[in-house]
Write a structure and sequence with these properties.
Strand content: 15-25%
Structural class: alpha/beta
Strand order of the largest sheet: 6-7-5-8-9-10-11-12-13
Distance between the termini: 13 Å
Shape: globular
Largest sheet: 9 strands, mixed
Number of helices: 15
């Protein structure tokens, strides 16, 4: 745990008592603050009470006593409308912040020699893989590495900091919206495409939230920016004009005179006078496809910014075991392979997996995102059959009508069984791909729970050939 500094003797309200909120409450108490916890879910309040943490109904509380409101990132800050706790906080002049901001202030308050190194990663797609990959490389290079944020453990639940530690943090746009003073030594912005627009009031708000990861960098820091999309290109140009930090553009689609890029699976470092080939990513079994080449370019550039050698970085890329729920093979029954890509919570993320297979049986659906799956139309010919689940089933079936065979399966277990039966009947090597292109919250607590349900369904088919599990990435 990282005891939070700056609120000693003060009271902080905490709303939202899932993983992030409870970790923040413990860290605040450990740092000398008092807390008042609330969650509209009885199970959240019960979890706090079980730990002996004070539960206070914030509807009736005296907000003048609070120094801040620690808001869980899943709670709306501004859109579609501010949460009622946000309205109350603003009415009483109470600061609203998140757990990443509590962490940032604690780091900033530490003496210079005790401050850890921070690598922060954001982007619409690829965040988790890149975060895990950077953490893996740092650990292999002998750094005391902690991985958290929007992946694995909440940041304040990680081991306490010291000057030799490296924190590798995945940050969502929700978390960044609640963060103002984070100063990463290395900031990574992978890519930007429309996502979570309802939570940010449109594309401008979403991009602005992502850009916050760069806000406090200066001389001596490194910014790694993906330039394969127009938003990334614009941001890279704009911060280059500011000329305050080291900027490393990355690409998986073109050669560049300066930066790190991957072409046809070969990774090149062009940050010096001439481009040098540093890794053959076609040999990296856990990094298939162009999207993973972008992740690899970002990870390589990030760890180089921390001073890790090119050789150590390349070795880490090749030894990376992969990430659970991201193009993860969870089993094979006969000639049918089952791939868990539950982390694909929007169409752009699903595209990455769908593009990796010439033909596949597709399990998709859940809580739909803006734009649905219309943008995947060019990949519909690859679908042997689609097995649709959750709230998006009917809408997805309408989009796929006349373009791919559809089964309205309803749930993961049914979809898995039917896809296996159809694939087996063909008598050929086949891939059953769970890549939902949707959020999971209609049927599951999160995408991890959805992926585990898929894994369980595969195991229930019997005679599953075991697959090696990813290691070292569930910090």
């Amino acid at each position: 745990m990282i005891p939070v500094r700056g609120f000693e003797g003060k009271t902080v309200a905490v709303f939202g008592l899932a993983r992030t909120g409870l970790a923040a409450a413990r860290a605040l108490v450990a740092g000398g603050a008092q807390v008042a916890l609330w969650d509209e879910r009885p199970e959240g309040r019960a979890a706090a009470e079980a730990e002996g943490l004070p539960v206070v109904d914030l509807n009736d509380a005296d907000w003048s006593q609070f120094a801040a409101l620690m808001l869980s990132p899943g709670v709306p800050l501004t859109h579609p409308t501010p949460h009622w706790t946000v309205d109350k906080a603003k009415a009483h002049g109470v600061e609203v912040l998140g757990d990443i901001e509590l962490f940032a202030r604690t780091v900033n308050a530490a003496p210079e020699h005790k401050r850890p190194k921070l690598i922060a990663i954001t982007g619409t797609n690829g965040k988790s893989t890149t975060t895990a990959l950077i953490g893996h490389i740092c650990a292999r290079a002998g750094r005391d590495t902690r991985i958290g944020g929007n992946i694995g453990r909440g940041v304040l639940d990680l081991d306490d900091m010291h000057g030799g530690a490296v924190y590798v943090l995945e940050l969502s746009s929700y978390q960044l919206d609640l963060t103002s003073s984070l100063h990463p030594d290395v900031a990574v912005m992978l890519n930007i495409s429309p996502d979570h627009l309802e939570r940010h009031g449109g594309m401008e708000g979403y991009v602005a939230a992502k850009r916050r990861i760069l806000a406090n960098q200066g001389k001596g820091d490194t910014a790694v920016i993906g330039v394969d999309d127009p938003w990334g290109q614009r941001i890279c140009t704009e911060i280059t004009a500011a000329n305050r930090r080291t900027i490393v553009p990355i690409s998986a689609s073109k050669a560049m005179g300066r930066g790190v890029y991957a072409l046809q699976g070969l990774l090149y470092d062009a940050t010096a006078e001439r481009a040098t080939e540093v890794a053959d990513l076609l040999r990296a079994r856990s990094l298939p496809g162009r999207h993973n080449w972008q992740n690899a370019a970002a990870a390589y550039a990030a760890v180089r910014g921390l001073g890790i050698s090119a050789e150590e970085a390349a070795e880490g890329l090749m030894s990376f075991p992969g990430l659970a729920h991201r193009m993860e093979t969870v089993g094979q029954v006969g000639r049918v392979r089952f791939v868990n890509d539950s982390k694909a919570t929007n169409a752009d993320a699903a595209r990455q997996a769908m593009s990796s297979y010439p033909k596949f049986y597709w399990i998709a659906g859940g809580q739909p995102k803006a734009g649905g799956i219309d943008s995947l139309a060019d990949l519909f010919p690859r679908i042997e059959k689609a097995y649709l689940i959750g709230e998006a089933s009917e809408a997805f079936a309408g989009v796929l009508e006349g373009k791919a065979a559809v089964d309205l399966s309803g749930d993961i277990a049914t979809a898995t069984a039917r896809a296996y039966a159809d694939a087996t009947a063909k008598g050929q090597d086949a891939v059953v791909l769970l890549s939902p292109a949707c959020a999971s919250f209609d049927q599951f607590a999160d995408f991890e729970a959805r992926g585990e349900a898929f894994r369980d369904a595969v195991q229930g088919l019997g005679q599953v050939q075991p697959q090696p599990q990813p290691k070292g990435v569930r910090a």
